[in-house]
Amino acid sequence: NAGVMQNPRHLVRRRGQEARLRCSPMKGHSHVYWYRQLPEEGLKFMVYLQKENIIDESGMPKERFSAEFPKEGPSILRIQQVVRGDSAAYFCASSPGGTGSLEEQFFGPGTRLTVL
Amino acid sequence: EDQVTQSPEALRLQEGESSSLNCSYTVSGLRGLFWYRQDPGKGPEFLFTLYSAGEEKEKERLKATLTKKESFLHITAPKPEDSATYLCAVQAKSSASKIIFGSGTRLSIRP
């Protein structure tokens, strides 16, 4: 019964490169959430997706960041032209969806992005 | 604006010394409050969900309680393996699923 999977676990990029972070939700979960955690800070919501739909992207920076959750395959968080300030841990969470009630979110191990 | 404040930022206890962590929240209609545990280098691990004032939940040495303005995570006779950062988070009724996290309390238990 695999949990939320994220890869890579560690990613190093130089300024100006692109970063692609992947998230596979728990089996049976159709809702995915992305969070960012800066050093010594709390988790900040970025985006909430269902299959092929972005439901809430109110926490996403307006430029350079995008997210998708295709019909097949993992959810992708994409950061274009990375800058040093993008260095952080990026966590993905998933929930079952479709219940219409409050759902716990289960988190993956995170991807630690370092921008040189 | 919805907000979550946790205190203290850090807490060091001796093994067996009970204490409480505080989570104060301001939200426009609470849908639910969550407690998570996070170990260094890992993702948050779900502990509890509380829905309404007066509710309590227990798991091993941990007990979470909820009032209209705050939640407490009581830890009884802690052990070194309870050392972690404990995160509180809330979801508002107005939100589809967005969760707002506090900055956490770093708990350290000395043997």
General description of the model:
- The complex is a heterodimer of chains A (116) and B (111).
- With 116 residues, chain A is an all-beta fold.
- Chain A is 0% helix and 48% strand.
- Chain A is built from no helices and 11 strands.
- In chain A, strands 2, 4, 5, 6, 9, 10 and 11 form a 7-stranded mixed beta sheet that branches.
- In chain A, a hairpin with a 5-residue loop joins strand 4 and strand 5.
- With 111 residues, chain B is an all-beta fold.
- In chain B, the strands form 2 sheets. In chain B, strands 2, 4, 5, 9, 10 and 11 form a 6-stranded mixed beta sheet that branches. In chain B, strands 1-3-8-7-6 form a 5-stranded antiparallel beta sheet, with no helix packed on it.
- In chain B, strand 7 and strand 8 form a beta hairpin.
- The chains are: A mainly beta (116), B mainly beta (111).
- Chains A and B meet through strand 4, strand 5, strand 9 and strand 10 of A and strand 4, strand 5, strand 9 and strand 10 of B.
Helix/strand layout:
The complex is a heterodimer of chains A (116) and B (111).
Chain A: E1 5-7, E2 10-13, E3 19-24, E4 31-37, E5 43-50, E6 53-56, E7 65-68, E8 75-79, E9 88-95, E10 106-107, E11 111-115
Parallel strand pairs in A: 2-11
Antiparallel strand pairs in A: 1-3, 3-8, 4-5, 4-9, 5-6, 7-8, 9-10, 9-11
Chain B: E1 3-7, E2 10-14, E3 19-26, E4 30-38, E5 45-50, E6 56-59, E7 62-66, E8 70-75, E9 84-92, E10 100-101, E11 105-110
Parallel strand pairs in B: 2-11
Antiparallel strand pairs in B: 1-3, 3-8, 4-5, 4-9, 6-7, 7-8, 9-10, 9-11
Summarize the structure.
Chain A has 116 residues and is mainly beta. Chain A has no helices and eleven strands. In chain A, the strands form two sheets. In chain A, strands 2, 4, 5, 6, 9, 10 and 11 form a seven-stranded mixed β-sheet that branches. In chain A, strands 1-3-8-7 form a four-stranded antiparallel β-sheet, with no helix packed on it.
